[in-house]
Amino acid sequence: MTGVKSSWIAQLLRYERRGDTFVTHPRQVAPGQRLFGGLIAAQSLAAAGATVDPGKLPQSLHLYFVRGGRYDVDVELHVERTRDGRSFDTRRVTAVQQDAVIMEMIASFHVPEPGAEEYPPHRPTVEFDDTAAREPDLEFADLFELRTRPDDDRPFAIPPFWIRARGEVEDDPLLRACALAFMSDIGPVPVAHPSGVPLRPGAGQAASLDHSVWFHRPFVPHDWNCYEVHPLNVGDSRGLVHGSLYDRAGTLIATTTQEALWRV
């Protein structure tokens, strides 16, 4: 362990366990705001991970946001043990709030295995030394430091950017994977917007529809990481994006995809 008593992510993932049902009480961030998707993703991954052998680490997660959640209302995370294998475990998590499903997730856990390590060489779209500190309009903004191009004056956190948690996170692979799941939901929605729509508050209705993360290599939340997200498609009021998370050495840490609803 790192000596951290209780990190920001550990506090956000506190739950009451009732067998394979985990109950959380998300704190209120601001009046009227919907439950942040990254928070429910992290909590669901934590609940799933609590039901697998500690030697099996998160491999991927794929989730659908069924309806908007609320703060200050208990969330029940129902974990289904879909499969326990020698190398892989599969879990399904259904998040329920006031008897209504708000999210469905399937996650896979894998025993680390020796093998080839390959990924395309990558040069950051924006070099760390060419960035400046930013304080965008962002839920949980107090938890993170963000750096973008000095001339980026947009009100939202829009990749590419460099990000790190302000507080140290325990040296626990599941906890750090949950932090990654949380942080990976910062930025994709604005990238998915139609190119002709100005990015400003009230420009349209936007919401995450589904989100996926593949965990490639160990993640250190309190170190600087570069998050790059690129648009792939816009159509039928939906935008699809693809993301990659790199550490300072250029190592590919994780890959993400997200589709967002954009009604303008």
UniProtKB/TrEMBL annotation:
Domain (Acyl-CoA thioesterase-like N-terminal HotDog) ranges: 31-110
Superkingdom of source: Bacteria
Keywords for this protein: Hydrolase
Domain Acyl-CoA thioesterase-like C-terminal: 132-261
SUPFAM superfamilies per UniProt: Thioesterase/thiol ester dehydrase-isomerase
Span of the signal peptide: none
Annotated GO biological process: acyl-CoA metabolic process; fatty acid catabolic process
MF terms (GO), sorted A to Z: fatty acyl-CoA hydrolase activity
Protein family (similarity comment): Belongs to the C/M/P thioester hydrolase family.
Protein name: Acyl-CoA thioesterase II
Organism: Mycolicibacterium parafortuitum
